[in-house]
Amino acid sequence: MKVKPPIISAREHAIGLKQYFHKGAKLAKQIGNRGPLKLNKDGKLHNEILEAFKREGFYVFEGVIGSQEIEELRSDIDGLLERAPVGRGSNVDKFGRPAFGQDFKRGTYTFIKPLSDPWGGTELLGGRHPVQMTQPLPAEDAPKETVHLIGGMCQAMNSGLRLYGHPLLLSVAEAVNGKDFVPFNEAVFVKQPGLGGSVAWHQDGVTHWNAPDWDPGIHGFNFQVQLYDSTPANCLWVIPGSHRQGRADIKSLVANNGNSELLPGAIPMPCKAGDVTIANRQILHCSFANTSPDLRIAMTFGFHRRSSVIGAHGALSQGADLFYDEQTVFERSRVIAVAIDARQQYFPKEKRYQYQPFVGLEDDYRWSPEIYERVIRDYNLQDLAI
Ligand SMILES: O=C(O)CCC(=O)C(=O)O
After folding, report:
1. Ligand 1 centre and the CA of 348: distance in Å?
2. Regions of the chain with pLDDT less than 70
3. In order of start, what are the domains of the chain with their CATH numbers?
């Protein structure tokens, strides 16, 4: 017989997790794996950092994004939240105006019930979140729905496109996935205080677990640029080293833990605004319903090795009928080239990142309103999800 989870209030949830948070934070301090994003003179990522990331499956780069850029990102996100439809299926915002995003082919906003876990225990997203997290009761005056994700940051916000062309972050992508790395997708996780939902324990990758050439890096990685200071109560949690151990049996892990989602050995990745986390897409990770008083916004975007993507079929948000051939990968990779140029035009003194697959093609991908229509609009229909 299925045991019905107890119904708990947001306050009880917050109090109940305190000890776990404390323990996790202590373990995180011991492991470390955080500090400035250091490149060598030749522009390559410091080997120690790369090794630490490969060993643990995560790293926190401190103070990467400057305060002006963070302000611009916050302001664009605030605008997108102001102009969001009032809920699923609505086409007007809270002021009765036409909501943002209706001229894009793929919806910009994902809504959920406050403090819920939309994917845990469902077959959604390849069934990769097998166990549902605790879903505390929101306050009585909470809205019926809250924005959980904002998609397509490169088309929805100019600051998002510029962030995508960040030279330090692209140098990390090169160090991890090779000079010819390719895009994955982007999603902004929105965790409003008292409303933000949880993301159940999962590993991101779904396609390559049984590949003959499987290795810990085969499903790529995600960056998360943090727009606000975050805490163990609203940030991402990971189990260090789990990316090296193959596909985890999450159901058994939870069952053997007294049916508790508070898995042992997990650590939080609390950040300051402007910090950037990197997480291997095979690391076991989750985040809890945000019953804390603090907002967390995480601009999430990932990159793959070219060899993992070419010849693969679509997964997750992409239909399995989509085949990632050279042309599809080239077309989606154009967004990196345009983002680099958009950034360069905005921050002319910054060293421009040289993206190897587009060396010599820079003039064809100069940022302009025309290229927005040709390359950026609806670019996310070609996301390379594996
Ligand atoms: O940042 C979060 O809260 C969840 C992120 C996550 O699970 C993911 O990017 O796969």
Report:
1. 32
2. 1-6
3. 13-307 (2.60.120.620)
